[in-house]
Amino acid sequence: xxxxxxxxxxxxxxxxxxxxxxxxxxxxxxxxxxxxxxxxxxxxxxxxxxxxxxxxxxxxxxxxxxxxxxxxxxxxxxxxxxxxxxxxxxxxxxxxxxxxxxxxxxxxxxxxxxxxxxxxxxxxxxxxxxxxxxxxxxxxxxxxxxxxxxxxxxxxxxxxxxxxxxxxxxxxxxxxxxxxxxxxxxxxxxxxxxxxxxxxxxxxxxxxx
Length: 209
Known about the structure:
Structural class: alpha/beta
Number of helices: 10
Radius of gyration: 18 Å
C-alpha cells in the first residue's frame, strides 16, 4: 500500500481525493494537512511514500521550501497537484526534484496513476504538460521568453503581479530587499520591458502569472 499525504488549502479537495481513493487497491490517504508548516511533522511521525502538494498551499512561499522537503526526506516522493500553469511551473518543478506534476483540471484517475508510477521511481508529467511542452518548443522567441526565468524570478514576478512591494516580497521569501530589486531588474531585462506595469502585463500575456 502506498501511503499518501495530501497538502491542500481546501477541505473540499481533501474530501474529494480521500473519498475517491477510499477503496483503492494500492493507495491510502493517511494524512491531510492544510498548511505547509504541518508537513515536516507528518513526515517525521508517519511513513509517507508520496506527498501530494499544491504550490499555492498556505505557508509555502517558495519552490525552495519544496526542495528542502525533498532533501530532508529523500524517501518521500513529491507530486505537485495544482491549478497553476503547467507549462510555466512543471519544468522548473522537475528540475527541483519533484517527481510528478498533475494539473487540477485532470481526472483523479490521472492523479492515482501518477502516484503509483512515482512510487515506482518514475518521473511523471501529465499528458497535458507533455503537450504544452511540445507546443512551447514550437513557439517563437518572444513566446519562449519565460523559459529564461529561474524559479526565484518566477516567484518574485508572481508577487509583483499580486501588487506586493519589494519589502513585502523580501519578507515572504526571506531575502534582502536589494536582492528583490536585483531580481526585478533582471525580469525587466529578460522580458524586454522598462516598467512594472508593462512587466506585469507581459507576464499575464505569456501566462506566467
